[in-house]
Amino acid sequence: MHPQGAVFDEVQNAPDLLGYLQVEVDERPEAGRFLLTGSQHFGLSDAVAQSLAGRAGVLHLLPLSLDEVRRFPSPPADLLTTLFTGGYPRIHDRGIPAERWLSDYVTTYVQRDVRQVLNVGDLESFSTFVRLCAGRSGQELNLSALGADAGIAHNTARAWLSVLETSFLCFRLPAWHANLNKQLVKAPKLHFLDSGLLCHLLGIREPGQLAHHPLRGAIFESWVVSEVYKVQVHAGREPRVFHFRESRGLEVDLLLEEAGGAMLTEIKSGATVASDFFEPLRRLSELLRRRGLAAPELRLVYGGDEAQRRTDVEIVPWGEVAERKW
């Protein structure tokens, strides 16, 4: 910490402070003097951009990644507990039961943050909307259908989803639609950034309930995608992550766009590997090659514990996701 600096927490509650800091920084432009933090992203980035443009760097602190969770003294040891507890720091550094902390978090988020930002009159409808979004994590986003199910207008659904995104509860994984053919689906997928919060919103109250839950595959997919997303964001990179689907049925869960090529990843929550898991990867790889693109790297992430190799496909167990380069 700078010897003559200061830390300002919850700075979104004191927007006038930024103007004073601008004057101070202009007079003494020493890097690292002030650290500004806020639990709300709403409006904070705009305020910083207006008052401190060119004078401040912005870091988005997402829920902890698997690699970060494992740095605590007693990290979860198995997949189901990892998914259930998620990556919010207080659960791990204070040993607070995940269900209790997440229940308090959701209540605080809805009653304080959302009321301040959206002026939502019907908090019950918003709570229903959030849970409906959780039920669609890992699925293609259809805002009209989502709004209809929640009993709200399309524009309201769009505005409410934007709030969930700016508060880092979820994000849209865009469809990759290079000029391959006219059959590509362009709708994004919705993914929650924290599997623990996702489990809570889905009514999962202990890890064992995940074993046979109908949405276990979607929860695992969102967890893997969010891990890759966090790797790129925490490295200061603009995420280049997508999903791929064409109307004739070919679908790949995760596509990373890289300089000169791509990485294709299928995600399966089962503890064993079946031969048909590789078919979408190989079909899309062949399609890319026929279009003159470089042969992509192929990966399968699964819910088992053993790293394997199948000629052209690297098989990554869930526990080694954090160790791979993405």
Q: How is this structure best described in words?
A:
The protein is an alpha/beta fold and 326 residues long. The chain folds into two domains: 6-51, no CATH class; 66-323, no CATH class. It contains twelve helices and eleven strands. The strands form three sheets. It has a six-stranded mixed sheet with strand order 6-7-8-9-11-10, with helices on both faces. α4 crosses α10, α7 packs across α9 and α8 packs across α9.
Largest sheet: 6 strands, mixed
Could you tell me the radius of gyration in angstroms? 21 Å
Q: What proportion strand? A: 15-25%
List segments where confidence is low: pLDDT < 50 over at least 5 consecutive residues. none
> What's the shape?
globular
**Number of helical segments with 4 or more residues:** 12
Count structural domains. Answer: 2
Listing every helix as H and every strand as E from the N terminus to the C terminus, the arrangement reads: EHEHHHHHHEHHEEHHEEEHEEE
Q: What structural category do the secondary elements indicate?
A: alpha/beta
Number of strands: 11
Average pLDDT for all residues: 90
**Proportion in helices:** 25-40%
Instruction: Please give the alpha-carbon distance between the first and last residues.
Output: 32 Å
Strand order of the largest sheet: 6-7-8-9-11-10
